[in-house]
Amino acid sequence: MRYIKLKTEDIELLELLVKTSTNNTIRKHSQCLLLSHQRRTITDLSMIFDIDRKTVERWFNSWELDGANSLPIASGRGVKTRLKGFEEVIKQQVELHNRNIKNILTFLKEEHNIIVCKRTLRNFLKDARL
User: Nearest to residue 49, comparing CAs of 67, 31, 23?
Assistant: First the structure.
């Protein structure tokens, strides 16, 4: 049986995060830690939050190492764009094809063997401010 023992200031912080945080992951981690402090087992917590028990153990380990800094998800997760490094080429194509996305997609597929959908290209153009 493993439980997290929290100090009163940690309890207050976690309760505040559960009530006010806009990030669902932070609320979920905080609630899990509070329930563990109330002597709920890892198996119970894994069933409550519908996650694997190893995930709960990993949350506990990161809490013991980093405290409140361990609650948010680490940056850099998710799929990386395939268009990174092609900003100049795409900028030239946007100017050449007058923002016709179909022609740009065809060019990327034929010349650089990059297959992306319209939405991905549109989001890339928006993020790159092209």
Answer: 31
Q: Which of 36, 79, 69 is nearest to 55 (CA)?
A: 36
**What gap in Å lies between CA 66 and CA 59, rounded to an integer?**
10
User: What is the rounded radius of gyration, in angstroms, for the C-alpha atoms of the chain?
Assistant: 23
Using CA atoms in the order 68, 31, 46, 49, what is the torsion angle rounded to 10 degrees? -120
Domain hosting residue 31, numbered range: 8-70
Q: Does any domain span residue 63?
A: yes
pTM over 0.70: no
Q: Do 47 and 16 sit in the same domain of this protein?
A: yes
Dihedral in degrees, nearest 10, Cα atoms 35, 39, 41, 47: -30
The answer to whether residues 13 and 43 belong to one domain is yes
In a domain, 76, yes or no: no
Mean pLDDT (10-residue bins), the chain, 130 residues = 90 94 92 94 93 93 91 78 82 84 89 88 83
